[in-house]
Design brief:
The structure holds two protein chains of two kinds.
Chain A: H1 11-23, H2 27-36, H3 40-62, H4 93-129, H5 131-145, H6 149-160, H7 164-190, H8 194-202, H9 206-242, H10 254-260, H11 270-304
Helix pairs in contact in A: 1-8, 3-4, 3-11, 4-5, 4-7, 4-9, 4-11, 5-7, 6-7, 7-9, 8-9, 9-10, 9-11, 10-11
Chain B: H1 3-29, H2 36-42, H3 49-59, H4 65-77, H5 91-126, H6 131-145, H7 148-162, H8 178-212, H9 215-222, H10 227-264, H11 270-280, H12 283-311
Helix pairs in contact in B: 1-12, 2-3, 5-6, 5-8, 5-10, 6-8, 7-8, 7-10, 8-10, 9-10, 10-11, 10-12, 11-12
The chains are: A mainly alpha, B mainly alpha.
Chain lengths: 305, 317
């Protein structure tokens, strides 16, 4: 595991790295093995999520038509001119689905990052400092966890107002206690390791121990947790948009499209099926990414031990 | 420690949790930009000084926060949830009425999901790596990846739009009797069931696989017990333990899923009441709904923990 912790650590970390290397195979060989054994699911996940990330970044420039301009070609079936058909205002569905990647990806990715970042700090401090502070922080996290996640997100958005930024914040708040718990228990796992005690004896300041000694060793579980969170984040953000509490019209957003075009669904199924398909494709991609990552890191870990 | 004292301790903890939840809900409203009166009136864009002052009076905002909070909490303890602004009626009866509708949706969904997923999970575990198992795995992966509103919309498209067997919206129908309710509930219950099914099936499958590998199960098989007895009397009892936790977790999901599914099918339950409160900026109603839902979730968790302790005599806290 120490191989993954590439932070510029103090003496303690160096000592641990050498210890691990002495037991296992030379670091370079192990690295090559790990790279060769990248699971197929991980590659497929990276490909799918990467495609949507790319669309989110360059969508407006690659979309064949403007996403907001109305035309007289209303509710046209998919054709060579309109690949995914058109909606009730004659807007090109293909362009809207392509550009729609942006709001969902932004909400899900930044919401996850926010939740992981805050939960990470709380979990690290709680696990390392322990005692009353740990008790206090964990009880506060418990209160947040007492709400079903979607309801908590709804409450936050209802208070702050419905838009993409607040939806992102609400996802972060929902994730914070869950990440904090995982990070706390991982921190407790290495709390009494020799290199931590060495750093304490050296008289290193607490922030140094937490962020330079402990954190670099926790990246694998944090990355796995983050990837699991990301798939929930996609589901949460499209659901918020569907309920009218995320992206606002006329922004092209998948959840919003499924909700707003509902009335025309029977007459023109493509107005709902294509954005719905995009959502499912992204969630499947993120799930594959998460499963693959977990498998890969676990194989890596077992080779380390 | 006996089960009774464990239950008693957990109930005490529940009271503390409910108190903390009420604090959070009440406290989070203090974070509103401006104050609650401005928020409520913002919906009608009436911000003149006089109406604002009247609204502050009505919401009790002239009192200090701790007094407002204690007043609200005291009301809840007495069973009085306050008065809705948008509906201009006491919240308690509205909540009870909507809860009835939501339960008609959630209870069949939960029962169906749990029983179906136990069958599927055990089936997949005993036929591990065979065709049945692979089909079930793909099916459950699909369930995890499709959001409730997408599944609901597709079901509407197929069963209401193309086949014309069932109504697309609960609001379109008007009537009573079991036939009517079956029609109204079929699609929403199917959506909720399929969504919860996936998680429970996956958990049951993996925990059953673990249990079937244990020596005591192998011993039972080797001493010539019928497979059925081994499976249902020996293995299932241990295999069910993680499932109990997931079902409780799923109840929380169900509460969120209910909000989405009720919106998809325009079904007048608790979930659409929450959305109504948010839309109308009806803060007393929102506060009461949130407290009620979070409370229900905590009670479900308590129930699961107690059930877990009863099923697993090894665990005594």
């Amino acid at each position: 595991m120490a191989v993954l912790g590439t932070g510029s650590g103090g003496d303690g970390e160096v000592a641990m790295t050498t210890a691990t290397v002495a037991i296992g195979a030379p670091a370079r060989t192990r690295h090559r093995h790990a790279l060769r054994a990248v699971p197929f699911t991980l590659l497929a996940g990276i490909a799918i999520v990467g495609l949507f990330a790319l669309l989110a970044a360059v969508g407006p420039w690659v979309a064949p038509r403007d996403v907001e301009s109305h035309s007289s070609a209303r509710l046209q079936a998919p054709s060579s001119a309109y690949w995914f058909g058109t909606d009730r205002y004659g807007r090109d569905m293909f362009s809207r689905v392509v550009v729609g990647s942006r709001t969902t990806m932004t909400m899900a990715v930044s919401g996850t990052l926010l939740g992981v970042a805050v939960g990470l700090v709380i979990g690290l401090v709680s696990g390392y400092v322990g005692g009353r502070l740990d008790e206090l922080l964990m009880r506060i996290m418990d209160i947040f966890m007492a709400f079903p996640s979607l309801l908590l997100a709804l409450l936050v958005v209802a208070i702050l107002g419905a838009n993409v930024v607040n939806a992102m914040a609400s996802i972060g708040i929902v994730f914070m206690p869950r990440v904090a718990r995982v990070v706390r228990s991982a921190t407790l796992g290495i709390r009494h390791a020799a290199f931590i005690e060495a750093a304490e004896v050296r008289g290193e300041p607490t922030p140094h121990i937490i962020f330079r000694e402990i954190l670099p060793n926790l990246w694998p579980p944090i990355i796995v947790e983050g990837s699991i969170r990301l798939s929930y984040a996609v589901l949460l953000s499209v659901s918020l948009s569907y309920l009218g509490l995320g992206a606002q019209p006329p922004t092209p957003d998948w959840g919003l499209m499924v909700s707003k075009e509902r009335a025309f669904m029977v007459q023109a199924p493509w107005v709902v099926l294509f954005p719905a398909g995009a959502i499912v494709a992204l969630v499947v991609g993120v799930n594959l990414l998460g499963d693959g990552l977990r498998e890969w890191l676990m194989a890596w870990k077992s080779r380390d031990e | 420690m006996s089960v009774a004292s464990y239950v008693l301790r957990r109930v005490g903890l529940l009271a503390v949790t409910l108190f903390a939840i009420s604090l959070l809900i009440s406290g989070i409203l203090q974070l509103l930009p401006g104050d609650a009166a401005e928020q409520v009136l913002g919906a009608w864009a009436e911000r003149s000084g006089q109406t604002l002052a009247m609204m502050r009076e009505r919401l009790g905002l002239h009192r200090p926060w701790h007094e407002q909070y204690l007043g609200w909490l005291g009301g809840i303890v007495r069973g009085d949830f306050g008065k809705s602004l948008a509906l201009d009626a006491p919240i308690g009866p509205i909540l009870a009425h909507r809860l009835g509708y939501s339960l008609r949706l959630a209870v069949p969904a939960l029962v169906l999901a749990v029983s179906l997923s136990l069958v599927l999970g055990v089936l997949a575990a005993t036929r591990r790596n065979r065709v049945v198992d692979h089909v079930i795995t793909v099916f459950t992966l699909g369930g995890v990846s499709v959001p409730a509103f997408v599944l609901g919309s597709v079901l509407i498209l197929v069963f209401a739009g193309w086949l014309r067997w069932l109504p697309s919206s609960s609001a379109l129908l008007d009537g009573s009797g079991p036939g009517y309710w079956t029609k109204v509930l079929a699609l929403p219950v199917a959506t909720l069931t399929l969504e919860s099914l996936a998680y429970i099936t996956r958990t049951t499958r993996s925990s059953m696989i673990e249990v079937l590998k244990t020596p005591y199960v192998r011993t039972a098989i080797l001493k010539g017990m019928p497979r059925r007895t081994v499976l249902f009397k020996h293995a299932l009892r241990n295999g069910l333990l993680p499932t109990v936790t997931v079902v409780a977790f799923n109840f929380g999901w169900l509460l969120g899923g209910v909000v989405v599914v009720e919106q998809v099918f325009s079904y007048p339950g608790l979930g659409s009441l929450v959305l109504f409160a948010i839309e109308q900026r009806d803060l007393p109603l929102l506060q009461a709904c949130m407290f009620f839902v979070a409370g229900a979730y905590c009670v479900a968790n308590l129930f699961a923990d107690v059930l877990y302790a009863v099923l697993n005599p090894r665990i005594r806290y």
